[in-house]
Amino acid sequence: MRIAVIPARGGSKRIPRKNIKEFAGKPMIAYAIGAAFECGLFEHVVVTTDDDEIAGIARGLGAEVPFKRPAELSDDHAGTVPVIAHAIDACASLGWDVRVACCIYPGVPLIQVDDLRDTCKMLEEGGADYAFTVTSFPAAIQRALKRGADGRMAPFYPEFVRTRTQDLEPGYYDAGQFYWGTVDAWRSGRSPHQAGKGLVIPEWRAVDIDTPDDWARAEVLYRMINRRDAG
């Protein structure tokens, strides 16, 4: 079976209560839960959390919270892979025959259902242990600059200073939305960045909400997208 696992701890620091803070009229986590149901790919939509309020809101939105995340996987240092591996094992202890798990982050108001479906297909085609969304850097990473304490600039890669931008290989970064992965991959501890395929999405749909500025940008984009779709 396929399951969605939404990791939503209660101790977010930079944006307090980020995972259930209201975004465009709904708790932020509602967008991840809604997309998981809408895509029609999952037998179970699970929220892993250490927080009773988050658990209650998640259940009210239709998700399952069949276990409580332990404290050692709920602090600022807990990585995504061990959190999802723990969730898989907890679900297996309930008798669920989990084959594939998709980690969907809770702060993804711009998530697209078609992207979930397309990356699922990429994973099931084989050749990688994970599949997730990526987007391209807005400028060539080979032309990146570093700034010294005195303000002087210098290239990170001097060998590319005279190379035309159009001749440089494009670089991509993780869109920070979700990761499909096989159960074996999650349990092995391997990173999606080392063992995954990437589905390229437009840069304007990739907003990783970690700071108040990220939140404000996401709200503007969300309003623009919905205004365009309504028109």
From TrEMBL:
List the source organism: Noviherbaspirillum galbum
Q: Which EC class does it fall in?
A: transferase
Q: Any idea what this protein is called?
A: Pseudaminic acid cytidylyltransferase
UniProt key word Nucleotidyltransferase: yes
What Enzyme Commission number does this protein have?
2.7.7.81
What PANTHER family does UniProt report for this protein, alphabetically?
A: HAD SUPERFAMILY MEMBERS CMAS AND KDSC, N-ACYLNEURAMINATE CYTIDYLYLTRANSFERASE-RELATED
Matches recorded under Gene3D superfamilies: Spore Coat Polysaccharide Biosynthesis Protein SpsA, Chain A (3.90.550.10)
Please indicate which superkingdom the organism of origin belongs to. Bacteria
The gene from which this protein is expressed is: pseF
A Gene Ontology molecular function term of the record: N-acylneuraminate cytidylyltransferase activity
Keywords assigned by UniProt, alphabetized: Nucleotidyltransferase, Transferase
User: Does Cytoplasm show up as a keyword for this record?
Assistant: no
InterPro entries per record: CMP-NeuNAc_synthase, Cytidylyl_trans, Nucleotide-diphossugar_trans, PseF
Pfam families of this UniProt entry?
Answer: CTP_transf_3
